[in-house]
Amino acid sequence: MDNYLNGILVLVLVLNLLSLGTSRINTIIKAVSVQGALLGVIPFVVHQHLTLPAIIVAVMAIALKGVVIPLVMVHALREAQIKREIEPMIGLMPSIILGAVATAFSLLFASQLPLASEHVGKLLVPTAIATVFTGFIVLITRYKALTQVVGYLILENGIYIFGMLLIEAMPFIVELGVLLDLFVGIFVICIIANHINQAFSSMDTRRLVTLKE
Amino acid sequence: MLDTVIHVILLLVMPPLLIGVINKTKAWFGGRVGPPLLQLYYDIFKLMRKSMVLSDTTTWIFVAAPLVTLAAVLVAGLLVPLGHAHAPISFVGDLILFAYLFGLARFLTTAAALDTGSSFEGMGASREVTFACFSEPALFFAFLVLAKISGSLTLSDILRATVDVSVTASAPLILIAIGLFVVLLAENCRIPVDDPNTHLELTMIHEVMVLDHSGPLLGVILYAASLKLFVLGGVLLHIITPSYAAMRWFDWPLFMVQMVCLAAAVGVVESVMARLQMRHVPYLLVFALISCGFGFLLLIR
After folding, report:
1. Spatial CA neighbour of A77 closest among A36, A38, A33
2. What is the mean pLDDT of chain A?
3. What is the mean pLDDT of chain B?
């Protein structure tokens, strides 16, 4: 079972790099939705005896992160009529390298951590740290509001992987609450992004600092 | 012995078929009939019967390059185990020879391109060498991972060892499989990197270097290019589908089916993607390099 788990987590890492390296917002949304759906599969792979809460969380995660949120974002993208991140704060190549360094760091760092014995051979912790880092990098270095939302989503995916470590101890209502918050948050951000776009004909966050009441 | 004979026959005969499969797949995606499956064989035979036109500025390098390229790729093909069988030639450290045979082929192709004295071809040569800088380390990282897994430095052993360990070391293998697939596309100038069908654009790489070759030399170049796809595909297949049934009459057809499926997969990639902008190609190759590097990092940490 660990092999399937590690296989999925490695694909998550690859999708991190992909979302750092592409300038098309459509591609990065697709990458993140595939990532979310992959993460939803993890509970089925990790646990020998699945409990009902775990199944509900997994199915909700796949449905929300894999289908609903990407649809909302693609809709917002179409309304806003933008296709690509024109000029990220640091270039695409440096951000790939930054992501690679962060991933390498988290791989090495996680092997130093005192982990519970059942988590040692798995890639859960390094992938979680690397995904959180990737989310940070996307959030910090991109100017378009929608890409920043995607960065937030990647960040949440990383935290979700951390949650996989505790899935038996953590009440599932917490996880569902997080998913609901995430959904509502992104829904609202996408609507706001549309309104910003209509009002100012730009979604560049650098120009949003001049907004006044 | 019989395995060796089949290996050599497949190596000599099958490669142009792969290009046919790729073109058929692309035609099917586009809703066209497409060229016949064996078109490249016809092309090569036709070119072999023609006469050559040689420019006055060229020297012997121009004639030698396609022949040496073909020889280098053929030897590389003899080093790689195809399917279940051992490679005909194998010794300790032959993975270095394998990588540098491709390096030799590339060097002579670019040298021949420079030999024509055309600035256009020089541009193609410069691009080819630039992109090789990224794809070669990726190949080496992939071999490092395989060597670490199998504890051997012989290409036959490290590629066939994936049969046993695919269960315990799946994560690095997935990473290097992704990396090697990108290297396969880049080395053979397939679509995300280069479009093999265009002939008059400023962004092509391999095609521009061979513009001045004609007749039998062009035939040799076309054949060597398809052979390169076949050899690298043979390496990649060991990582993607490592299981074989140790029965000769079953394994060889299975290998051929897998190879055709790989060619079809390349065709699908070419159909759904556009060619990348020239300045974006290094991103893709760095991605492949990082992917193979992570495979190594995962293994040694």
Report:
1. A33
2. 83
3. 88
The two most distant CA atoms of chain A are separated, in Å, by 55
The answer to whether the CB atoms of B167 and A96 lie below 8 A apart is: no
Class of residue B213 by CB neighbours under 10 A (exposed 0-12, middle 13-18, buried 19+): buried
A179: its two tokens: 């998913």
Give mean pLDDT, residues A97-101: 92
* Residue A66 DSSP symbol: I
CB contact B286 to A (< 8 Å) = yes
Which residues does A contribute to its contact with B (CB < 8 Å)? Answer: 3-4, 6-7, 9-11, 13-14, 17-18, 21, 92-93, 96-97, 100, 103-104, 107-108, 111, 123
Cβ–Cβ gap A7/B283 under 8 Å: no
Cα end-to-end distance, chain A, whole Å = 55
- Chain A residue closest in CA terms to B283: A93
pLDDT at A137: 93
Task: Give the integer Cα–Cα distance in Å for B264 and B35.
Answer: 15
CB pairs under 8 A between A and B: 52
Terminal C-alpha separation, chain B? 41
In contact, B108 and B69? CB cutoff 8 Å:
yes
Among the listed residues B117, B132, B290, B274, the one whose alpha carbon sits nearest the alpha carbon of residue B190: B274
CB within 8 Å: A96 and B175: no
| Inter-chain touch B170–A7, beta carbons under 8 Å | yes
Per-residue pLDDT band for B158 (boundaries 50, 70, 90) equals confident
Q: Between B168, B283, B294, which is nearest A92 by CB?
A: B283
- Express each pLDDT in B248-295 by its tens digit: 788 888 999 999 999 999 999 999 888 888 888 888 899 899 999 988
SS3 category, A84: strand
- Is the Cα dihedral A123, A128, A129, A132 positive or negative? positive
- The reported pLDDT for the residue numbered B14 is 94
Residue listed under structure tokens 């809703």: B31
Three-state DSSP class for residue A201: coil
